[in-house]
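#dry-run=false #mode=assembly
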Amino acid sequence: NAGVTQTPKFHILKTGQSMTLQCAQDMNHGYLSWYRQDPGMGLRRIHYSVAAGITDKGEVPDGYNVSRSNTEDFPLRLESAAPSQTSVYFCASSYPERNTEAFFGQGTRLTVV
Amino acid sequence: RKEVEQDPGPFNVPEGATVAFNCTYSNSASQSFFWYRQDCRKEPKLLMSVYSSGNEDGRFTAQLNRASQYISLLIRDSKLSDSATYLCVVYMNRDDKIIFGKGTRLHILP
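#status=ok
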């Protein structure tokens, strides 16, 4: 029972390069979200999805794109990475009633140089 | 006033002691409240929901005070394994918005 799986766990990217962070869940949860966590700040939601084919912007969506082609996967794409996107990224899944995040993935530590 | 505020700590508490944290929120429309714990360099994990009537889970008690707009977490008989950062989370159903506090660091001392 894997829960929410994120890959990769660590990555170093050069400014201007693109990258996709992967998120997969096996609990049949409808809601999936991406967060970033920076020192001295609370987790901030980037994008989220309530079901396959539906995505919405969170509080800090600029510079990121998402897609949701099925229930299990919710990739986060950085088209042209910037040093300000250096962060720890978490994917989270929620129950249908959706009033909080039930499970988080283990995170992806991304450094943009 | 920030949407969700927590004392960052650290709280250094001897093993076996009782410790309490508060978290204040600014939006009275906030509907749901939660506590998470996050170990160093790990993902957040849902600890418990917070209800107006108060709720208890073993050594942990959570309370909500809507009039004063704060939630609290009480840990009794603290263990070394309780050392972590505790995150306060507020959900606003009307805006479908989740706000995470910055967290309170707790160190349990042997």
